[in-house]
Amino acid sequence: MQIKKKVLTSVLAFSMVGVLAACGDNGDTDNNGTDTNAGGNENVNTENDGADNADPEAENTGDDEENMNDDAEAENDGEAAGDGEEVTLTYARGQDATGATDVLVEAFMEENPNITVEFREMPSDTGQSHDQYVTEFSAGDTTIDVFDADVIWPAEFAQAGYVLELDRFIERDGIDMEDYFEGTVESGTFDGRMWAMPKFTDAGLLYYRSDIVDEAPATWDELIEMSQEYQGEEGTDFGYLMQANQYEGLVVNAIEFFGAYGAQVIDEDQNVTINSPEAVTALEKMMEIAQSDFVPGDILNFDEPATHTAFLEGQAVFARNWPYMQAMTEDEDVSQVQGNVDFALLPAGDDGSAAGLGGWMSMINRNSEHPEEAWELLKFMTGPEGQKITAIEGGSAPTLRELYEDEEVQNAAPLFANDEFVETLENAVPRPITPIYPQISDIMQIELSRALSGDISAEEAIENMEENIESALAE
Q1: Could you give the CA distance from residue 381 to residue 444 in angstroms, rounded to a whole number?
Q2: What angle do CA 373, 374, 375 make, to 5 degrees?
Q3: Which residues, including other chains, have CB under 8 Å from residue 56's CB and lie 6 or more apart?
Q4: Between β-strands 197-203 and 355-364, what pairing exists: parallel, antiparallel or unpaired?
Q5: pLDDT for position 46
Q6: Pairing with 118, which of 4, 177, 314, 464 sits 20 to 30 Å away (CA)?
Q7: How confident is the model at residue 414 (pLDDT cuts 50, 70, 90)?
Q8: What are the backbone angles phi and psi of residue 162, rounded to the nearest 5°?
Q9: Domain CATH number, residue 164
Q10: Do 239 and 335 belong to one domain?
């Protein structure tokens, strides 16, 4: 099977605590290496997680944005992290039920005795957390120094002037961004510059009943054939499960189809490119599956919890979900399919296999009074030592390739030692990288849902998305 190596510009570490909330770090409760802002466990409410909440007067692009960053940096010249000055930083992120954050912060402070890090817990709902950041940063608040951000936030926060550009730090300290998975780097990049460092990642997988089929389908056409053939085997009711409810998870599922067939929503220059034959083909394939007899009749209500509940009860042969579900399949308290589940790359289309990218980044408040020390914390958390702690203590998937060769990391979770899982992370497809992503997501959700329900054709849905996205970008 051809694996998609390039990262598409049309762009979840799901923690079990956040999963039932439908999207979780809130972060990243660093629980199972899964995120989800896409129905995973970030519980992303795109209606509340929006660029329309940003202060329009705070938007700064081009030279103005550079000047703001330069000013913030100039004010702190000579304030090196290692100069012995006692400094207190505030690090904000969502609830972490695993305790990994405490271990991470303690390890950093042990190596940097002049820096004290105070932890501030943000709301568990990602949309609420997003809005709280926007409120504080648009007012120029200096309280928070470093914070965790969903992979869909960097472009919005960069354009609004909320965060520091990181290129000067990266270049000065010789950090090779090619050591990170390409999709995670792409998510932190906007307007040719780096605004966020990848902290942990996530990507969609295809789960299948190994007691029913010997191998996973290599293509979406094979999945359709096998779902029809094996539906009903071993007491199953359905051939395939997916996330088709009208929410962020629907967008991620669609992005996976678009990526597999060579389509993208928005290119790196913010041109709307969704109206293409490839996009129509991709959506038609998604519609064929959603409207088939081998999915539940209420598939348009399915999110991640509905998917894993049905699959763990033995109701389906195949299911698309995030990595968090792997551990659940072997949990005797919740799974009726123990020992009979394996996973693989999502099926390929005409352009290869593509998995939706999730995860969390770390960023620096542009108004931080201690940018040098803030960078040291951010660099530690997203570097090899910090990510190893997060992987071992919190079960979150690293964004650094080298850590998947580390024996301690491999022992922390079976997925981390699985080559196919690492390959999935390599070919993860980001959602559209744009400062107005929440608006784009809303537009896509509406038209995708209308198409899957049979109200409009694939061509009409694609044309509507193109028109509405172009209008939103022009505002």
Answers
A1: 34
A2: 90
A3: none
A4: antiparallel
A5: 32
A6: 177
A7: confident
A8: -85, -20
A9: 3.40.190.10
A10: yes
Helix axes 458-474, 437-452, angle to 10 degrees: 160
Parallel, antiparallel or unpaired: strands 205-209 and 316-321: antiparallel
Q: 70-103: per-residue pLDDT in tens?
A: 444 444 444 445 557 899 999 999 988 889 999 9
Give the residue carrying structure tokens 């938007």: 59
Looking at residue 125, its pLDDT comes to 82
pLDDT in tens, 332-382: 999 999 999 999 999 999 999 999 999 999 999 999 999 999 999 999 999
Pair 314, 296 in one domain: yes
Closest to 254 (Cα-Cα) out of 215, 220, 210:
220
Q: Which two tokens stand for residue 257?
A: 């189809």
- Does residue 265 sit in the same domain as residue 347? yes
Which of 3-12, 156-165, 214-223 has the weakest average pLDDT? 3-12
**Rounded-to-integer distance, Cα 38 and Cα 22, Å:** 8
CA distance 269 to 276: 17
319 DSSP β-pair partners: 207, 241
pLDDT computed for residue 311 by the predictor = 98
The Cα–Cα gap between 108 and 117 comes to 9
Cβ distance 416 to 218 under 8 Å? no
Higher pLDDT, 56 or 282: 282
The pLDDT, as a whole number, for residue 97 is 80
36 Cβ partners below 8 Å, 6+ apart? 12, 14, 18, 19, 22, 23, 24, 42, 43, 44, 202, 248, 249, 304, 322, 358
- 274 and 385 inside one domain: no
Domain that holds residue 297: 203-354+434-474
Mean pLDDT, residues 100-129: 95
pLDDT 10s digits, 294-311: 999 999 999 999 999 999
Quote the CA–CA distance of 151 and 188 in Å, as a whole number.
Answer: 7
6 pLDDT more than 90? no
Does residue 452 sit within a domain? yes
Residue 18 domain flag: no
- Same-domain check for residues 282 and 196: no
Identify whether residues 384 and 323 lie together within a single domain: no
Do both 279 and 174 map to the same domain? no
pTM over 0.85: no
Same domain, residue pair 232 and 312: yes
CB 97 within 8 A of CB 18: no
Largest CA distance in the chain: 69
What residue type is assigned to position 7 of the chain? V
